[in-house]
Amino acid sequence: MVNLGLTGGADAVKSVKVGFRLPYYTHWGENLLVCGSEPVLGSWDVKKGLLLSPVHEGDELFWRGYVSVPNGFQCEYNYYVVDDKKNLLRWETGKRRQLLVADGIKGGETVEFHDLWQTGSDALAFKSAFKDVIFRRSWNMEIQTSSGLLSTKLPQDDAVLVQFKVSCPNLPDNTSVYVIGSSSKLGSWKIKDGHNLSYTGDSIWKTEVAIPKDDFPVNYRYCKWDHDGNPSLEAAPNRVVSVESINKPNYIIKSDGLLRELPWRGAGVAIPMFSVRSEADVGVGEFLDLKLLVDWAVASGFHLVQLLPINDTSVNGMWWDSYPYSSLSVFALHPLYLRVQALSENIPDSIKQEIRKAKEELDGKAVDYEATMSTKLSIAKKIFALEKDRIFQSGSFQRFFSENEGWLKPYAAFCFLRDFFDTSDHSQWGRFSNYSNEKLEKLVAEDSLHYDIIRFHYFIQFHLHTQLSEAAEYARNKGVVLKGDLPIGVDRNSVDTWVYPTLFRMNTSTGAPPDYFDKNGQNWGFPTYNWEEMSKDNYAWWRGRLSQMAKYFTAYRIDHILGFFRIWELPEHAMTGLCGKFRPSIPLSQEELEKEGLWDFDRLSRPYILAEHLQEKFGDAWPLIASNFLNEFQKQRYEFKEDSNTEKKTAAKLKILAEKSLLPDTEVNIRRHLFDLLQNVVLIRDPEDARKFYPRFNLEDTSSFNDLDDHSKNVLRRLYFDYYFHRQENLWRQNALKTLPALLNSSDMLACGEDLGLIPSCVHPVMQELGLIGLRIQRMPNESDLEFGIPARYNYMTVCAPSCHDCSTMRAWWEEDEERRLRFFKVVVGSDELPPSRCVPGIAKFILRQHVESPSMWAIFPLQDLLALKEEYTSRPATEETINDPTNPKHYWRYRVHVTMESLLDDTELTSEIKDLVQSSGRSCPPVQPEAASVYKDNATETPANTESDGVEEATILTQVKDTSKKPVAVAVM
Length: 974
What we know:
Helices cover 31% and strands 19% of the residues. It contains 29 helices and 38 strands. The strands form eight sheets. It has an eight-stranded mixed sheet, with no helix packed on it. The longest helix has 27 residues, at 395-421. It is globular and about 100 Å long. InterPro entries: Carb-bd-like_fold (IPR013784), CBM20 (IPR002044), CBM20_DPE2_1 (IPR034840), GH (IPR017853), Glyco_hydro_77 (IPR003385), Ig-like_fold (IPR013783).
């Protein structure tokens, strides 16, 4: 070959050839590339990465590529899918890969990295729920060897040194990992002659074997061997390592992902923090009660305890604040959950007596939110006066303050101003309406007259942090995952909107379109997010939220995960959730509509109100309603007056008329009919661009649509379907792939997404790609042709449950609708007999068993549904056990369990029955003894054929591995 002078001959000889090889199926127009931390791999600029070439090997499609690097080269890298112009389409999840060319490798030799694409589910074992809680013992094993690559030199020229690497995140004590295979160097399938792998940390096991080139391709599998000599071979088919004939490698690093086992499955209990009842609490569940709940979970075989949001919601100073999804601060914890008895070891007798009296008075059937808050804060202030100097001088407080002052100072200042001005509406705070760091420092200055008020909020948050941290550590030690809840919104009068106003669109409101919960949609009242602004600092506000949650939780539920794809946005003046639009979305342009023959945009976008509509809704009283709310702008055609042309204006005017007794019907009925008229539109005009329009949800339900000509109807039907079910999919997918990774990468908590409602087709593939676990509620199936979900068909990457906090309990649902109950009994139970009118324990057990036996990774049950297993706990009317009514925006969140956790712990009959259900389904249970915590050997994950006595017959092993298929199987293993 002619030397063109591009590279010196000596340098060329010294370089090492590094190859990449990965099996991956792409769609037309998609390509695979490697991008890494060094210039030769693009310095993390995907467009400069190494483009790989596709090669078919049998039925498999492999992507391969090579670069030359100097001896001792090292970098990080990952794989990416791009289009023909190298625009990023998707990327693998998990940690960055490590590339290291050992010094012992000679110039001119070839090293190949045989990798597998890392999916979101592959990375789940590395989340704190598993790594730090359930599989903690496996992760804390003693490291046996370095994680460095290729520590052994090649012994001979006719061999290839292969490094076998596999992840075993859930390994029982005193268990070894072997690799066996078709080569004599791998024991010829004899375990005793196979290679024992060494532990390198982070659940990774490896060994290096020099295999003669004539032995390739080599079929192999990994095998666990316990201390009793019982082997457990990983699931079929065989793995394969082969040598490509052109670029003959000297070294192969075979990264095999996870050991193939039956998927890990667990169960849990869900209950709001405020609903827990204990003998020690004062009117409401408290953070320290979680220790009792964890003990009950362990006794019942549960690996998880799930809560609703626990952030401070003290916006209005009344029971409205019981709504846990309307945060005053996304960082501060709720004072409601404070245990005042634990604020000091030296509480005076007078305060102890006050606490005892409060316990008796507040020990009611339901939470008295206002009285409980008032009482706890009053007692806490008295203890604060006695303890403040000691607490603020302590090292533990100073560490807490140092780590949290970024949010703690604004929170304390906000609470002071809220109480001073008697409102959380910071637009009413005069010169303090606009936040600045300079104003903040003056507000929290130590020489201010109100400094003790500021310090009181520090004091409360410090103790809340201490108490929740104690409970969280207790859960971890018991092998129980504590699962939090991440609300999709914040209150518009919150610390966050005051400090970070540019991150929110304050003239809008979030909600949900009509769905299972409400035919008129939902309006949650939160401002929508300004994602463009948030992206400027790589979503720092979101990353901060998740980092804060991770101090206490090892898993979390993302409330309304669809909001990270698109949010249902309503104008700030709306009260219902019907007439909204998706943000982001591609609207219908005026030009587009005109090309379709639609011209009268006022007719389509203004409320369509005829005299006959008024007569139909209001009867003989329609002239009175029209005179107050409407103008006749054409003969028999009406429009709303300026003072009532929005839902909020209409409601305000109605209230005034009702107070004057000037209404011919109830205020509720008239408001409903007037709202129907306001919503009687076909298109919603964009308030920011008059030439853009959005189809009104369920537009065919309106008389405005039904009175159109057939051509207009057909055009609008087609455009409606396109807007809601087709044209947005790629936009929403791209939006989620920009926003969700910022959340997922900011902590190592296990992430679950609440994906109920109208689900775009892009959602579940993205969730699967990112390793997000979905939610399945049996009465709300994803399949449009089913009335009841079939748990046996659920995907592994799901949480399944018979009910949730946003709907009636299992018992209440059973009793609500006789016809539906008959259908369920016939279709799901498979019986033509008449079902019992009540959800008796037998029915409850049948439904719960369906769920624990499902393939879902998690089966998580509301505590109310579990109590239905025992007749004595069903004396309370089922309707009283509902936590939330989504149709009522002013619902009072106050449900309390009617028995204490101490009583439930004493009820071994109930806990044994629940644990039997969990264990018989093959789900993992936490160990009962704390010292044996965090690793449970689930017999369901063992392979019966491989658990024979010492000295397993070699013929048996050979029989088990005869399949020589080259196709890798992706089995989710925890």
